[in-house]
Design brief:
2 copies of one chain form a homodimer. The first copy, chain A, is an alpha/beta fold and 257 residues long. The first copy, chain A, is built from 7 helices and 11 strands. In chain A, β9 and β10 form a beta hairpin. In chain A, α1 crosses α5 and α2 packs parallel to α4. Chain A is globular and about 55 Å long. The interface between A and B is large, with 78 and 78 residues.
Chain lengths: 257, 257
């Protein structure tokens, strides 16, 4: 009998979030699972790594028969310490999430969930970040689990390029209302920031909470993740870790520096 | 007389690093400068933003006639708070650095310097991250300053696409030994991590420092930043904030999910 695939699971909402337990539940039949996830919430940590502090990790109990570790650092730290310290063989796939909240459009740049997935792809391991379009700590992940299982199964069966990386976003709805799975590109958009000003009770100095509204800069385009999600589809965006702007590259070669 | 360009400057090594002072010195003749930089070192912070804590900022003195602010957060936070809270008009260009150490190849994914530049590009402002291939706190930036000035001047004069973003790496050498400026794509490579184990003096529990060796996965390619730098060129990589893998996008559309 062939060895079951080794599935490494992480996230950014911490090992105590509901989303990571739901991810484990969704893919349990597909392989042997090891969880290596942050001990503390790491939302917005992007691809950050911890360089100015040492890391610690400790075995913990997430689910009765799942080997689980909590790490003092970021999602990308979790993947690094899993691959190069905790695991004795490379995983067949890395799954990150299920994130509480969307990682569509430019959110991917800030996302710790996607930082973990991209770190996996960097080391040549197929990696998927999953996000549910609901921020609530007690959100219902039952629809999400169906698509997580389906997409993970498909990627495990794929025999091509081994650093495939996917950003999967799942609408918050009943399964019968989901129109299907749509492969998309990243929407052009941005957060228009506002800084909510408050004052320290003692010294009266101001402090600011980062807040804002997302602005879709191409609402008319029909091939984007934002469009697919608004139509009720699960969006699947293939991700590259090569940040080169190839369109600009040829223009730039003609510049006279 | 036309208004001088407004130049916003940030970095990830903190407002107290030598590199940011050298960046100010290099571009001072080119416009009106405002510095908004982290109060604490932020190396490896990528595009992280601070969501779980409020931000504070305070005016400080970096150079006698430069308006300067230090911010409690990450490089990307600095750009957001500068654009949406501190400045009363949008800058004409955002410069980040000069980083103490290379941001070539996959280092860009972890780089706070480039996180600041990419945040600028996200808001449609031409942005450049500069890095010197030397980690020393007291490195000599005199060669770097020549190329920083030259490249900034060229980008300021450019009238095309307004979200141009460049990752510029500069060899640590005398000006006469630099062969020129080369436009490059990002090298494929990865950090092979090692975790240096130490033990807490009290409870004897282990802790780990992230360390490792960079592995260039395509040393023979001659169009990469790693190759250009090894040959003694300044490397200029155009950066995109669209993480979509377009090669994979068409393949993936044929998949049966």
């Amino acid at each position: 009998m062939a060895e079951k695939p080794l599935i490494l699971i992480s996230n950014d909402d911490s090992i105590y979030a509901k989303g990571i337990k739901e991810l484990v539940k969704a893919v349990k039949p597909l392989g042997n699972i090891v969880v290596v996830a942050p001990a503390q919430p790491q939302s917005g940590k992007s691809h950050a790594v911890t360089l100015d502090m040492p890391l610690t990790y400790r075995q913990t109990k997430l689910d009765e028969d799942i080997l689980s570790y909590k790490v003092s650092g970021t999602p990308a730290d979790c993947i690094k310490i899993a691959l190069f310290k905790i695991l004795d063989r490379m995983p067949n796939i890395i799954l990150s999430g299920i994130n509480h909240g969307s990682n569509s459009s430019v959110n991917i740049l800030y996302s710790g969930t996607m930082g973990a997935a991209m770190e996996g792809a960097l080391h040549g391991i197929p990696s998927i970040g999953f996000s549910l379009l609901n921020f609530a700590a007690d959100a219902d992940f039952s629809t999400a689990r169906i698509f997580v299982e389906k997409i993970t199964r498909t990627v495990l069966a794929y025999k091509g390029k081994n650093n495939i990386c996917l950003n999967v976003n799942i609408p918050y709805d009943q399964p019968e209302n989901i129109k299907g799975i749509k492969v998309c590109r990243q929407s052009e958009g941005e957060w228009r920031e506002f800084f909510s000003e408050r004052f320290h009770p003692g010294n009266k100095r101001p402090y600011y909470w980062l807040t804002g509204n997302y602005k879709n800069n191409e609402p008319e385009s029909s091939d984007t993740d934002e469009f697919a999600l608004a139509q009720g589809y699960v969006s699947v965006q293939p991700i590259t870790i090569d940040c080169t702007d190839y369109k600009m590259l040829s223009d730039l070669k003609k510049w006279d520096f």
